[in-house]
Design brief:
Radius of gyration: 22 Å
Oligomer: single chain
Largest sheet: none
Mean pLDDT: 85
Order of helices and strands: HHHHHHHHHHH
Number of domains: 2
Low-confidence stretches: 1-12, 213-218
Helix content: 55-70%
Strand content: under 5%
Length: 218
Amino acid sequence: MLLLAAAVAPLAAQSMRARLAGRVPAAAVAPVDSIVRVAEVDGLPTDPLVRKALEGGAKQASPDQIVAAVAQVASELREARALLLRGGGGGPVPPAEVMAVSAALVRGLPVPLVQRLVAVLPGEPTGPALHAVADMVGHGFAQDSAVGLVVEAVGQGLRGLRLLDVATSAVHELQRGRTHALALAEVRRRLPDVPTPPTPPPAAVTRARRPVADTTQP
């Protein structure tokens, strides 16, 4: 097994450099590869790092800018993983969870509020809860109020996509003319019985057609 791991490591390094070669400046390849290797050892997802490097290459950023951007993403992922380890259930931290928490922190959700969500979902996926909060914040709800509603929903047994239904219900109350405070109060009153989005009628699905490609363009 050790011999196999030793053989795979150089192949992985070659694969990484091959992905970067010709798509980022040559001077950035080795530093980015080094950051990715350290992240992998630390148990961090590495795809976001590679994507950031390729994004910089596509934008014709300088080698220093690309390396700095990749290092920043690695730091954000490391902070997210540490937060999950402090508040999680003690098991392994899935890469998707690290990326979801990192994205929430980058969007500006304060660490204490993220910690509050992680604490009520120990060892469970936090992505839906974070997306629900982001949806409500995007519609003008205060961050702490949005987190509070999601935490209350979790306390009443809602999980996964049902947390997105909670956010949708709050937004619908706004659209009915309620203030943010009254919208939150109404959704709280109905918990855990928030409605799920209606399923499109079969006729609507049957009538759906792929748009015809425009062949008049060169």
